[in-house]
């Protein structure tokens, strides 16, 4: 079941530097202009179901298990389309908005990449 589904519409010039550091920062279309430089901007999307540990994050064809989730991650996704994915393998989040996945290199995200979070039957 899809809990979240959106498409990347723009990638900021500095987003690849964050990706090289194992962090992808997504924002919905209402993101302030000053964030566009380092963020990955998505189209409008609704959080259909709360994200939980054990769900699967899909970035294009790549999939990653959600290992930990900060206390405000779901509200950030729902209200701002703001999703911070950290490829750090942590089972406890560093920050309240983090979504941690396995410690692997972050994939390159480009315009048109589909971002999904699934749970249950995936």
> What is the CATH topology assignment?
M1 Pyruvate Kinase, Domain 3
With helices defined by DSSP (H or I, 4 residues minimum), what is the helix count? 2
The residue ranges in which pLDDT falls below 50 over 5 or more consecutive positions are none
User: What series of H and E elements makes up the topology?
Assistant: EHEEEEEHEEE
Highlighted features:
single chain; 122 residues; mainly beta; M1 Pyruvate Kinase, Domain 3; nine-stranded mixed β-sheet
Give an overview of the whole structure.
The chain is mainly β. It has 2 helices and 9 strands. The protein has a 9-stranded mixed β-sheet. Strand 4 and strand 5 form a beta hairpin.
Please outline what is shown here.
By secondary structure, this protein is mostly beta strands. It has a single domain, classed as M1 Pyruvate Kinase, Domain 3 (Beta Barrel), CATH 2.40.33. It has helices spanning 15-20, 73-80, and strands at residues 2-11, 23-27, 40-42, 56-59, 62-65, 68-69, 83-87, 98-101, 114-118.
């Amino acid at each position: 079941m899809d809990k979240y589904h959106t498409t990347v519409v723009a990638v900021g010039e500095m987003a690849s530097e964050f990706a090289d550091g194992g962090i992808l920062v997504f924002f919905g279309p209402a993101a302030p202009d000053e964030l566009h430089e380092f963020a990955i901007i998505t189209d409008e999307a609704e959080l259909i179901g709360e994200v939980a540990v054990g769900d699967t994050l899909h970035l294009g064809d790549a999939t990653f298990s959600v290992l930990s989730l900060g206390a405000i991650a779901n509200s950030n996704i729902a209200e701002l389309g703001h999703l911070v994915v950290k490829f750090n393998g942590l089972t406890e989040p560093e920050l309240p908005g983090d979504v941690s996945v396995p410690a692997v290199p972050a994939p390159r995200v480009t315009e048109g990449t589909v971002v999904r979070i699934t749970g249950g039957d995936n």
